[in-house]
Amino acid sequence: MADTPDKPRYWLNKFRHELYGEVLPFWVKHSLDKENGGYFNCLHEDGTVFDFGKYVWLQGRQVWMLSKIYGEPDVSDVFLHQYAPGVLSRETLLKGALLGATFLQKYAVREEDGLVWFLLSKEGNPIQMQRKPWGACFYCMGLAELARVMPSGRAKEAAVFYRLAIDLFRIILSWFDAPWLLGSKYGPGQPATSSLAVPMILLNMCHEIKGMLGEPDENEATPLRELAGDEDVVIYSMCQGKELWCIDEIKKHIKYGQDGGIVKVLETVGVDGSELEGSGGRLVNPGHVIEAGWFLIQYSETIVRDEVRQMEIFELGRNITNWAYEIGWDSTYGGIFYFLDAGGFFSPMELEWDMKLWWPHSEALISFAMAYHVSGNKRIALVKKLEGEKEKLVQLTERVEEECTFLSRQETEEKMATLHAQTNEAKERWDGLQSSIDEMLNQEQELWSRFQIVATYVMEHFKDTERGGEWYGYLNRQGELTQRFKGGPYKGCFHVPRALWLVVGILEKLCQKELTEGS
What we know:
The chain is globular. The chain folds into two domains: 21-182 and 192-235, Glycosyltransferase, CATH 1.50.10; 253-483 and 496-519, Glycosyltransferase. It contains 14 helices and 13 strands. Helix 2 runs parallel beside helix 5 (134-149). The protein is mostly helical.
């Protein structure tokens, strides 16, 4: 019987083909600048380069993406040949990642002050500087991932990328601590603010840096074999501290009603979490909220020895994802609005507020799939706990009944009274556990339903059904294409392949779970 859209395998087959048969081949065929290094970012729908500028944050993102796929243990040449013969291979992925990393290493940083350029020419000449840290963030993440996956025979090269990533990470942290180091376009009348983008991106950066380091004192990763000292322990600990700061900072943006439910998640608040006056203070970016949601869920899975804290962070990520979907989904035409005004009465100042962009939908695919998968694991753990407690009570009852055969009537009555009290206490716990299990099951059904809705929308609206390849990025409210390019200053080899890669990994686990439970 054929798989249907309500089954994980249906979407696994579709998205695996999209990633390895369409999206990645598009970027590998059309974006690699083998003459000058780096990647062409501005690509028309047929892959033609329409602008030769190279945007540093997109360069770093593509290094990261190609390195991630190269580092997948199950992605062999045989596997890649099934989807893109003659285009994708492990060697192509590694060479592609190195092409971008070495280009950035040469040209991305302004030597006199360490700032990272926003835009370079195709030859690497600097064109534009932004007073923002994002180019540096993704350059750092790309270097870190490439250092992690470099072949063991290229340890010295990997160590160079490791060194660059760690040094840049330290600089980025100083910029987050003192934003004025990057310069500012604002005057003294602008209040100090907290942007959701900062803790959101930093939380994910820390996850990536920790992934490169592995467990301190146990990691045998290629780049670390070339280094001495305990720097990995120091950086790992630094990341853990920053992660806690990120969680607290994200919470400042979440506002609750009297019933304890979320009523708004704001893009910008005061440094103390206070709401700001004006349209900027009411701005909601559903895509950012959803992305922050899965970053929180991802982080929750790294928490050990604290189940309460783990569940708290997981629920926070799941809840803000659901809230953003509920407020952001267009009930008339489908799709997620780009911006909204939290007041509900006004339109956002951003003229493109009602457009449907590729990246919020990509984040929604990840967040709903991840929340569904993690929630299912937690529910199964509760079911096992409940079954274990019931089995213990059965064993206790049998033991007490056996003991009572050797006791007097009074002693037997006392024993049975104690057993009765223990049974009642256990049943109260069981009722609580069963209630939690039922609630989680209902939530999972909603999460999976929303995943299917978003997945159906992106395949019907963003996918290029005529040419294949990378997805389109920009739609009007009605879901009609507004721009025909597939790569531009803000859209590169990142959001779509990252979403497909993560979702495919989750769906593979879900399918494996179905096989295990069915056997």
